């Protein structure tokens, strides 16, 4: 079930998404004394992370965090490194540090790195997964056609041209040719296994993908369409990204 909310101000939507995620973390800490989350990167996550790290009442030392994806072969010194992004925007502002399992895209053996992450993520349920929706409707770096059948939590994937063009247009790379062609990504089934899935997808450039994900059939050609089958997915849009939806939420 997807609960969709639309905001005139995309930053307000990100703040609300962070509040919902923070409450889920608090609930897990109260229930089990620990919480496990997945954090994401990209332009859509700037405001969300700003509000999440400022949320009161979270003992971050009892939180274990994973991140969704990382480019293969990209050094952490590169401006587009997702590890660097999360160290700066997620880890650095927190006084109490969570246990953070980074995806090492510089690993010499990417399959071994996936296996390492698979073993870690299998140690318990994920309480909250934060993510976005790409312009090509990808989830994490699962470009169409996505693998909906895999049982592996992390995969080595090939990035399609639409995905790579988005990364270039957003200013992360100086040219399309500079964007890596491979990445390590959390799989769609692993994302769907999270108890709560929180997606932030603002801006007009996401409107076509959002409409395909919500109004169309569930298909690997629209990876984000799988959210229709999640028991507790909350999608935060702005008026621009919701513009092509056939039926607006009440």
Radius of gyration: 17 Å
Shape: globular
User: How is the largest sheet built, in terms of strand order?
Assistant: 1-10-9-6-2-3-5
Main sheet specs:
7 strands, parallel
Strands, count: 10
Give the terminus-to-terminus CA distance.
Answer: 15 Å
CATH class: Alpha Beta
Structural class: alpha/beta
Helical content band: 25-40%
Order of secondary-structure elements: EHEHEEHEHEEHEHEHE
Given as residue ranges, the uncertain stretches (5+ residues, pLDDT < 50) are: none
Number of separate structural domains:
1
**CATH fold category name:** Rossmann fold
Given the structure, what is the number of helices? 7
Percent strand? 15-25%
Q: Using the 3D structure, state the CATH architecture.
A: 3-Layer(aba) Sandwich
**Overall pLDDT:** 95
């Amino acid at each position: 079930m997807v609960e969709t909310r639309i905001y005139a101000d995309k930053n307000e939507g990100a703040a609300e998404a962070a509040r919902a995620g923070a409450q889920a973390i608090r609930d897990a800490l109260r229930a089990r004394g620990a919480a496990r989350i997945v954090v994401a990167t990209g332009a859509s996550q700037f405001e969300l992370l700003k509000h999440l790290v400022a949320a009161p009442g979270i003992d971050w030392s009892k939180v274990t965090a994973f991140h969704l994806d990382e480019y293969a072969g990209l050094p952490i010194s590169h401006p587009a490194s997702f590890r660097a992004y999360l160290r700066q925007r997620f880890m650095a502002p927190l006084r109490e540090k969570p246990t953070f399992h980074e995806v090492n895209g510089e690993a010499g053996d990417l399959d071994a790195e996936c296996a390492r992450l698979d073993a870690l993520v299998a140690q318990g349920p994920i309480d909250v997964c934060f993510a976005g929706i790409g312009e090509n409707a990808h989830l994490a770096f699962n470009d169409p056609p996505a693998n909906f059948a895999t049982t592996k939590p992390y995969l080595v994937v090939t990035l399609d041209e639409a995905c790579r063009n988005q990364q270039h247009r957003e200013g992360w790379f100086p040219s399309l040719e500079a964007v890596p062609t491979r990445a390590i990504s959390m799989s769609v089934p692993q994302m769907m296994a999270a108890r709560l899935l929180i997606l932030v997808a603002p801006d007009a450039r996401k409107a076509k993908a959002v409409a395909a994900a919500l109004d169309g059939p569930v298909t690997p050609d629209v990876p984000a369409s799988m959210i229709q089958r999640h028991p507790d997915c909350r999608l935060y849009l702005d008026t621009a990204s919701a513009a092509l939806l056939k039926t607006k939420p009440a």
